[in-house]
Design a protein that fits this description.
This is Homing endonuclease LAGLIDADG domain-containing protein. This protein starts with a helix and ends in a 20-residue tail after the last helix. The protein is globular. The chain has helices at 2-5, 8-16, 22-33, 58-67, 93-102, 121-131, 149-164, 183-193, and strands at 37-40, 47-54, 77-79, 84-88, 103-104, 107-108, 132-134, 141-143, 169-173, 176-181. With 213 residues, the protein is of the alpha+beta class. 39% of the residues lie in helices and 19% in strands. A hairpin with a 6-residue loop joins strand 7 (132-134) and strand 8 (141-143). The relative contact order is 0.13. It folds into 2 domains: 1-109, Endonuclease I-creI, CATH 3.10.28; 110-208, Endonuclease I-creI (Roll).
Length: 213
């Protein structure tokens, strides 16, 4: 089978019949909002989705690898420098279309039409598993959205309100702005995402108390 992967004619035919399932699209959107990135092809007309997480999140990496099984031909690679696992999809025009939405001059952005893109609870859960966390003593949550600036955060805030009925705050610190799900919205947020949060990531949404040895 590996010989087929390196056969350009076979690969061209394979790509013609390749499509993203609804689940793959939802996970892709959440991943792009989170830690995902793209690698553009030499032709400039196709791209790969790159997924990279810390080695401690290996179960999460395996879960994503399974989701994109028909898009990935190699096992995740270990990077010793940053102690992470990484894999990429094959290069495809469908992936490139999402890159066009979320990147401007090689910088990740929030598109103006994010309300038409971020609609699924699964996407929301993947985004949170990538870049979100809870608090130790209160039922509130945060998502690291520093990279999107004020305007990007405002677009996300409006999207969460309209598509999920979720009211969020913007919190500013030395790094910039990030989304904050206040206590009054905590249970609603958990109900939205908890069915899709994988076991190894459940700690992010559980009410945690200080560890006692």
């Amino acid at each position: 089978m590996l010989k087929q992967y390196t056969n350009s004619n076979w690969l061209k035919d394979y790509k013609k019949n390749l499509d993203l399932s609804s689940i793959q699209r939802d996970v892709l959107i959440g991943t792009i909002l989170g830690d995902g990135s793209f690698k553009i092809s030499r032709s400039g007309k196709a791209a790969q989705l790159q997924i990279c997480h810390s080695f401690s999140s290996k179960d999460y990496v395996s879960w994503k690898k399974q989701i994109f099984e028909n898009w990935v031909f190699a096992e995740p690679r270990y990077h010793q420098i940053n102690n992470s696992l990484i894999f990429r999809t094959i290069s495809h025009t469908l992936i490139f279309e999402y890159m066009r939405f979320f990147y401007k001059e090689r910088i990740k952005i929030i598109p103006q039409n994010i309300k038409n893109i971020l609609k699924s609870n699964l996407s929301l859960a993947v985004w949170f598993m990538d870049d979100g966390n809870g608090y130790l003593k209160r039922n509130a949550f945060r998502i690291s959205t520093y990279a999107f600036g004020l305007n990007g955060n405002l677009l996300l805030q409006e999207c969460l309100s309209q598509n999920f009925g979720l009211q969020t705050n913007l919190v500013r610190d030395s790094k910039g702005f990030q989304l904050y799900v206040p206590v009054r919205e905590g249970e609603k947020f958990k109900k939205l995402i908890s069915p899709f949060v994988i076991p190894s990531m459940k700690y992010k949404i559980e009410n945690r108390s200080p560890r006692r040895d």
